[in-house]
TrEMBL record:
Phylogenetic lineage: Bacteria, Bacillati, Bacillota, Bacilli, Bacillales
Cellular component GO terms held in the UniProt record: cytoplasm
UniProt pathway annotation: Carbohydrate degradation; pentose phosphate pathway; D-glyceraldehyde 3-phosphate and beta-D-fructose 6-phosphate from D-ribose 5-phosphate and D-xylulose 5-phosphate (non-oxidative stage): step 2/3
Keywords (A to Z) from UniProt: Cytoplasm, Pentose shunt, Schiff base, Transferase
Species, as recorded: Paenibacillus darwinianus
Gene it is expressed from: tal
PROSITE patterns (UniProt xref): TRANSALDOLASE_1, TRANSALDOLASE_2
SUPFAM superfamilies, sorted: Aldolase
EC number: 2.2.1.2
Protein name, entry field: Probable transaldolase
Reaction(s) catalysed (UniProt annotation): D-sedoheptulose 7-phosphate + D-glyceraldehyde 3-phosphate = D-erythrose 4-phosphate + beta-D-fructose 6-phosphate
Length: 214
């Protein structure tokens, strides 16, 4: 499974990229706004750090506006991916961009039908939001499982990005469900490699070693 970082924080991306764990990055308007930086500047900087796909989201809600923004964003870097909302206009724009060979990530996917529509429209990636589905009392990961079956059944090349990931369990379950990618907040990532028993084990080994030195 590939790991994308779900952040627009350049320092976080640089730090984690050094561990060889970053296959790509996803941003959204909320994440970019949090950084208080110019959208183009931050996306270009991220695209220079990470060689994999970097999603940058359009703000327009009408297909014409989405496409205007998309064509501009597509010029920013060779690895930029246009993130579009899962709406009729978003599907129109996704299809138009796919026909021009521009990569897309259809975001805010909350049902298997939506994911299937996005794949048929030619999306490169689809982003089912696991955590936000959990928040409303449904089982978000079931959507990732269903989408994996559907895409496999029909041989779509669209890749599933398990998004809105909130905990280690989500990452493990996304891998088990066959998600191609999990996009993970930088703040969550360390909990994937940390374990209290590892720390206790190191402490014990070092203490035993120091006893031998006396
Ligand atoms: C994915 O591309 C989104 O940016 C992200 O995963 C949303 O997560 P949230 O529900 O924690 O805001």
């Amino acid at each position: 499974m590939k790991f994308f970082l779900d952040t627009a924080n350049v320092e976080e991306i640089k730090r984690i990229a050094k561990l060889g764990l970053v296959d790509g990055v996803t941003t959204n308007p909320s994440l970019v706004a949090k950084e208080g930086r110019d959208f183009k500047e931050v996306v270009q900087e991220i695209c220079g750090i990470v060689s994999g796909p970097v999603s940058a989201e359009v703000i327009g809600t009408k297909a014409d506006d989405m496409l205007k923004e998309a064509f501009e964003i597509a010029e920013w870097a060779p690895n930029v991916v246009i993130k579009l909302p899962m709406t009729e206009d978003g599907l129109f724009a996704t299809h138009a961009l796919a026909e021009k060979g521009i990569k897309t990530n259809v975001t805010l996917v909350f049902s298997a039908a939506q994911g299937l529509m996005a794949a048929k429209a030619g999306a490169t990636f689809i982003s089912p939001f696991v955590g936000r589905l959990d928040d409303i009392g449904t089982e978000g990961m079931k959507l990732v499982q269903d989408l994996n079956i559907i895409l496999t059944n029909y041989g779509f090349t669209t890749e599933i990005i398990a998004a809105s990931i909130r905990n280690i369990g989500h990452v493990e379950q996304a891998a088990l469900a066959g998600a191609h990618i999990a996009t993970i907040p930088g703040s969550l990532l360390p909990s994937l490699w940390k374990h209290p028993l590892t720390d206790i084990g190191i402490e014990k080994f070092l203490s035993d070693w120091s006893k031998m030195q006396k």
